[in-house]
Amino acid sequence: MPISGFPEWLPPQRMIEQYVLDKIRSTFELYGFAPLETRAVEPLETLLSKGETSKEVYLLRRLQDSGDTPAKGEDQLGLHFDLTVPFARFVVENHGRLQFPFRRYQIQKVWRGERPQEGRYREFLQADIDVVNRDTLPFHFDTEMPLVIGDVFRSLPMPRAVILVNNRKVCEGFYRGLGFEDTAQVLRTIDKLDKVGPDKVAALLVETAGATDAQAAACLRLAEISATDGSFVERVRALGVTDPLLDEGLGELLQVVETANEHAPGLVRAELKIARGLDYYTGTVYETQLEGYERFGSICSGGRYETLASVGNTRFPGVGISIGVSRMLGLLFGQDALSVSRPVPTCVVVALPSDDRRAECDRIAAALRKRGIPTEVAPTAAKFGKQIQFADRRGIPYVWFPGEPDTVKDIRSGEQVEADASAWAPPAADLHPVVTGR
Amino acid sequence: MPISGFPEWLPPQRMIEQYVLDKIRSTFELYGFAPLETRAVEPLETLLSKGETSKEVYLLRRLQDSGDTPAKGEDQLGLHFDLTVPFARFVVENHGRLQFPFRRYQIQKVWRGERPQEGRYREFLQADIDVVNRDTLPFHFDTEMPLVIGDVFRSLPMPRAVILVNNRKVCEGFYRGLGFEDTAQVLRTIDKLDKVGPDKVAALLVETAGATDAQAAACLRLAEISATDGSFVERVRALGVTDPLLDEGLGELLQVVETANEHAPGLVRAELKIARGLDYYTGTVYETQLEGYERFGSICSGGRYETLASVGNTRFPGVGISIGVSRMLGLLFGQDALSVSRPVPTCVVVALPSDDRRAECDRIAAALRKRGIPTEVAPTAAKFGKQIQFADRRGIPYVWFPGEPDTVKDIRSGEQVEADASAWAPPAADLHPVVTGR
């Protein structure tokens, strides 16, 4: 039986997923990110080290161990709930063996022990990139993340992606300039804007952050600012708040927007209400909307950490972004927005004239495979009509008939031509299944 | 800290692993196997349904649940310990939506809660293929498995693989023909041959299977037979035992050997002592040795199940084989038998003459990436010597110097030539990291 929160795709969806993963991976590699995979488990104390009790953790126990405690000398292990915590641990463990700045990508399943009723994924695939450096990490790496993600989405038959960008320094500096001391509390409240609306947020700012009505109104006006070009700077300035951190944040955010506009106009939008809630970002933050799917929220998020990891007095700052692959595909599959031309890799079925000719058919198949053409031999020496049906049901375009000479039939058009297994090739578009958007 | 049994590779090893996985996958697809991934967890009762208490299972528990029992209405979940049990469950669940015979491959992590002291993997990657059909599965699918595995290994820069094949029907028929009733007990004892030697096995056959000395000796003589061609049939016949099941088994085994010899001489060896212990195979069984690594045991095993799954009165027989990817790579890495030409995908570093020219360098990088050339821009506008060192330390072959005109330098040879980012390409051998064997 299906288990709530643990999605499983049938082969056609899995083929689409692999296609998407291949495109993600090759784009990441074009930007020089090296592959990494970490183990699925971490000691519980590592998983909870950032106070992440909000991410529900699955703990592991050996069936053979009695009770709930791990065997002597063993840590309590849990499944990782993201790829950032394991990556930070990996950097700490291997910093002496890595070249910094270290660019890595990581495409793996993660698990969250959500309550099943919520209908959320409990197992899902993420595709992360991060750049981490020793001591300091130049800001320009923050401007690179949207370019990579933009290229990923441009390589896929999907709706257009818009990356929403903000900078915690803008918010924090603005709130400080307004006179707030507990700027984190203000940020947490602003983060509720989409859920509860501006009136409620204003009330909450007064209630929980000690804001005056004017301060609350100013915070809301900042959060309203949104621009696909550098005009947001003027609009923030027009609110009349000054603070050095605000200036720094505006400068950084402007760089992200300008670099993205140079690369692909419309790719990013400065969106000053983006807060990324409880995550430990210290500067740039990213969220991503798919056009037409805005109501489903962000499918790709991340930001800058001043301290991704630390070893003694050495800090390792980082910036990264994570594509929620399962979440994104779940949305698109739900709308039938992606399809694949056939549910098997096979391009050619070699028809079997009679059981005693299987060796001959195997030789034909081997010759085709040798030149990269995915081929199956028919499972039984049924009537040719049935063998053609075998191919047709699977969307396999070609059936090969051994003979003197051999012939190959495009079963879509009915066209049948003489062919030699050591030379014939299908049109490039037929060689592999093709993934298309709606 | 590393956790015993949970291997983690540094990026160069991970690059090799990905290269190997890509080759495995593309070979599987050339034979028409469709991709499948199942969830990492199964209900405990599914995991134990074949009586597999010998495979140690990791159970899951939500951190937020008190005690050891799952929330009401939820099954006790455990991590899968192989890919066969989840595949069988998937077939049962989805048989109405699949086209039979159904060919699928599945490349995933599995987990076994072994005691840490044993130095065994507790998390490892397997790459499985299986063909499953409704009611009956023609025997020729058994002859196909070694061809696929042979092609996988021929595509990899690795020692030669030899697939050892046997057939349970040969053993069972032979033991029956000799007069044994509990043939399973004889098989289990013969399976200990490599561990305890023939004298001890003979004694055990007398002790636990009620064998006479002559019967025990005959069983051992059968187990000694080994041949890369059909000559094993004569040698079995020469032992003077007759039984219809023995005849059937010999005929099947001969087909596997002959088909493989036609495809790639030396690829398989009939090895009549192979028993595959406690697994539920009913006919053909496979093990695989890497030349030079025989002492480490099988790195790729499988066989035929008369009942892989069943739904009501409908049986789903299957045949499959599984490459132990982590185990195999662990062995090869341990002997430094595989290497990669550089630990990053990057082919070109664009040198940054000064910070104010980053946009220009980004444009050059974008032009190169657009044509599939993995490119990074130097992280800082350091002296060119330091920027060349940045590339050199990572094994990146080319450094690009923006100018009028641009030039590109092969830092291995020192050769520097004029180049245009919209036209230049490296030699094909430099474009991506190259994996080589020793």
UniProtKB/TrEMBL annotation, chains A, B:
InterPro entries: aa-tRNA-synth_II, aa-tRNA-synth_II/BPL/LPL, Anticodon-bd, Anticodon-bd_dom_sf, His-tRNA-ligase, HisRS-like_core, HisRS/HisZ. Its EC number is 6.1.1.21. GO terms for molecular function: ATP binding; histidine-tRNA ligase activity. The keyword Nuclease does not apply. It catalyses: tRNA(His) + L-histidine + ATP = L-histidyl-tRNA(His) + AMP + diphosphate + H(+). L-histidine binds at D82, L83, T84, R112, Q126, D130, R276, Y280, Y281. GO terms for biological process: histidyl-tRNA aminoacylation. The keyword Protein biosynthesis applies. Residues 101-345 form the Aminoacyl-transfer RNA synthetases class-II family profile domain. GO terms for cellular component: cytoplasm. Keywords: Aminoacyl-tRNA synthetase, ATP-binding, Cytoplasm, Ligase, Nucleotide-binding, Protein biosynthesis. SUPFAM superfamilies: Class II aaRS ABD-related, Class II aaRS and biotin synthetases. Belongs to the class-II aminoacyl-tRNA synthetase family. Homodimer. This is Histidine--tRNA ligase.
